[in-house]
Structure formats: structure tokens, C-alpha cells
Amino acid sequence: MPINIEIKARVKSLVLLEEKVKKIADFGPELIKQEDVFFKTENCRLKLRIFDSGKGELIYYKRANTFQSKESNYEIYKTENPESLRDVLNKAYGSEITVRKKRVLYLIGQTRVHLDEVEELGAFMELEYVLKNNESRKQGENAVTQLMETLEISKSDLISVAYADLLAKI
Questions:
Q1: Helix (H), strand (E) at residue 149
Q2: How many angstroms separate the CA atoms of 23 and 34, rounded?
Q3: What total of structural domains would you count in the chain?
Q4: Domain limits at 127?
Q5: DSSP code, position 157
Q6: How would you write the pLDDT of the chain (170 residues) with one tens digit per residue?
Q7: Residue among 144, 153, 168 at smallest CA distance from 3
Q8: CA 97, CA 103: separation in Å to the nearest integer?
Q9: Dihedral angle at the C-alpha atoms of 112, 133, 50, 70, nearest 10 degrees?
Q10: What is the CATH number of the domain that holds 105?
């Protein structure tokens, strides 16, 4: 199962942050419009990501709600027919909440940098360091911490929960 080390933070200005990211990025920008439908589960998160291209991904993941960098274990199933899959999953689990966002993706080494504009919530960024098979969690945490410092992301801006959790509080 793939593993990421990740953080999520509120952002005051996506424009200013993107200027910093562009200077050190190996890839990007790639604009991605997506809708994440979260289903009711007890021991994990299960979401169907629907892209504006009409394709989708069913994503299973486990991740602690903490402000520090956190390990995320995940599996992804790609689908050409996300709407039919959504119907089946709604019948089986029921959906909890839908998150709509515009995401700008950059890659810096092994780190995916997401600059997100989330409907009803505002501006955020995520860093997802993808661990290689022979890498330790500590190596991923160090890489994320270093990139946070480079991008001037303050620990006080970090959030501990998923966008769906924030929307549920509105």
C-alpha cells in the first residue's frame, strides 16, 4: 500500500504562495477541477474523486487527524464511469459530504504540492511526500518540514482534518 507523509495548511494568498512554488517546482502548474464525495465509513475514509474530464478515482485511505506531518496509507481505483460508481456507493454506504475544489498541482522532487481553492472554505495548500519503498517515515517528515520552511508555511497555519470535516462544521 502506498504511503504519503503530508500536511495541510490554510493559506492567506495562493498567488503569493504559487510564486514561491513556481521558482522551485520540477513540474506544473496543472489545473485540476474535482469533486470529492465522501462516504460513511467507520475505520477509514472512502471518497470518490470525480474530475471535470468525466473520469474518477475511488480512494481509500487511513490518516490520523493531527497538526504534525502525518502518514497516509491509501489505495486508488481508477474508473471511467464515476457517476455509476457513485450511485452504487451511495446505496451501499450513503454519502456524507461533497467537497468541490480547484486544485493547482506542482511537483517538487517526490512532493506533490496542491494549491487548493475549496468552495465554502477558501484557500489551502497540501504537501504530500510520496515515500519510496526503502525510505523511512522520518525521511518523509524531514522533507516536508524543509519544504514548509522554504515556502514559509507556519505551523500555526496547519490544520489537522480533511476538507470534509471542515465543511461538516459549517
A1: helix 137-150
A2: 26
A3: 1
A4: 3-168
A5: G
A6: 788 999 999 999 999 999 999 999 999 999 999 999 999 988 889 999 999 999 999 999 988 788 778 778 899 999 999 999 999 999 999 888 999 999 999 999 999 999 999 999 999 999 999 999 889 999 999 999 999 999 999 999 999 999 999 999 99
A7: 144
A8: 18
A9: -60
A10: 2.40.320.10
- In angstroms, rounded to a whole number, what is the distance separating the alpha carbons of residues 120 and 71? 27
Residue 63, strand partner residues: 72
C-alpha distances in Å from residue 26, one per residue of 22, 109, 117, 123, 169: 9, 7, 22, 23, 36
- C-alpha grid cell for residue 34? 474535482
Q: What is the pTM assigned to this prediction?
A: 0.90
- Pairwise CA distance, residues 6 & 4, whole Å: 6
Interior CA angle at 128 toward 124 and 132, to 5°? Answer: 175
In the chain the first and final C-alpha atoms are separated, in Å, by 33
Residue located via cell numbers 462516504: 39
Here the cell at position 59 is 480512494
Task: Assess contact for 2 and 74: CB atoms under 8 A.
Answer: yes
Q: Kindly report the number of other CB atoms within 10 A of residue 63's CB atom.
A: 16
The CA distance from 57 to 62, in Å, is 16
The amino acid at residue 27 is: F
